[in-house]
Amino acid sequence: MRTITREDILLTLDLLGIVPGDTILMHSALTAIGPVEGGADTVIDAFLDAVGPEGTLVMSSLTGWSAPFDAATTPTGVGYIAETFRRRPGTLRSLHPVHSVTAAGKNAAYITEGHENCATGCGEGTPYLKIRDLGGKIVLLGVDEDRNTSLHCLEELTDASYLVTLDIPAPTYLPGTEKFTLTKFPPGHRDFKGTTPAMRRDGIVREVPLGRAVVRCMEMQKLFSWGLENLARDPFFFLCDNESCSFCSAAREGRQDAVGDR
After folding, report:
1. 134 CB-side CA count, 13 A
2. Suppose 127 and one of 5, 101, 122, 150 were both cysteines; which one would form an S-S bond, judging by CB atoms 3.0 to 4.6 Å apart?
3. Residue 63 contacts by C-beta under 8 Å, 6 or more apart in sequence?
């Protein structure tokens, strides 16, 4: 296949309705697209061009929790584009030992500040809800809904019964502290990918091809309204129906014996 250029990416974003001034939360997989001229930096530059100086680009910089989180050195666990963005001069990172985000642009400081003071990783006061309140959009570049961290926000906002409390090693920004307690932590399996047909049917997601990938775009406020309505009807809306899935089966039955599956 031919090499994808910056202009190709900009055209795709235009077709998805991305405009100057937008706040974008992007999840991505570079290899899914195919060859890109200039690699990850070209993708990042195209997104920054699309939102312009009045816009903001945000990426999840999720990490594991077996070792203490250090905002300056702990790499992201969500792909090469996200890690390249994290390492860029001027990119800001929020302080949360699992659900941190990185950001650049007009509202980067506002979005990233105070994450360490929030009661949960994805709930009230976190970068994810700030992006929602700014009228932000989610872009899934070559990845499916199973990479859409914002769906965990909906679980937190509805106090999903299968969320847990978990103690992990304390991050380095809390010197002298041995452990950090995560509340409303989302362990285990989800069938987030299985929501895609319903999103298409209900007009929640727009999709445009780019190279070998599909790029999906959702307005965050619409996604939240849609998700909360579905969770009100079915609190297990995001869980799978596979009887052999130990986590989802246990969660539906109100058991916590599968919370370690992730």
Report:
1. 25
2. 101
3. 69, 74, 75, 76, 77, 97, 98, 100
Percent of the chain topping pLDDT 90: 94
Q: How far apart (Å, rounded) are the C-alpha atoms in residues 258 and 105?
A: 40
117-124 mean pLDDT: 95
Q: Is 115 helix (H, G, I), strand (E, B) or coil?
A: helix
- The C-alpha atoms of residue 66 and residue 9 are separated, in whole angstroms, by 36
Under a CB-based contact definition with an 8 Å cutoff, are residues 180 and 251 in contact? no
Nearest to 154 by CA among 248, 223, 256: 223
Using CA atoms, how far apart are residues 86 and 129, in angstroms rounded to an integer?
21
Measured between alpha carbons, how far is 78 from 25 in angstroms, rounded to an integer?
Answer: 13
Residue whose structure tokens are 């070559």: 142
If you ran DSSP here, which 8-state letter would residue 191 be given? -
Query: Alpha helices of the chain — where are they, by DSSP H?
Result: 6-15, 30-33, 39-51, 80-87, 108-112, 127-133, 150-157, 196-201, 220-233, 246-252
Residues 207 and 214 sit within 8 Å (Cβ to Cβ) = yes
User: In this structure, what are the phi and psi dihedrals at residue 116, rounded to the nearest 5 degrees?
Assistant: -70, -20
Average pLDDT, the chain: 95
The amino acid sitting at 138 is I
| CA atoms in the 13 A half-sphere facing the CB of 68 | 12
Q: How far apart are CA 130 and CA 136, in angstroms?
A: 9
pTM: 0.94
> What 3-state class would DSSP assign to 74?
coil
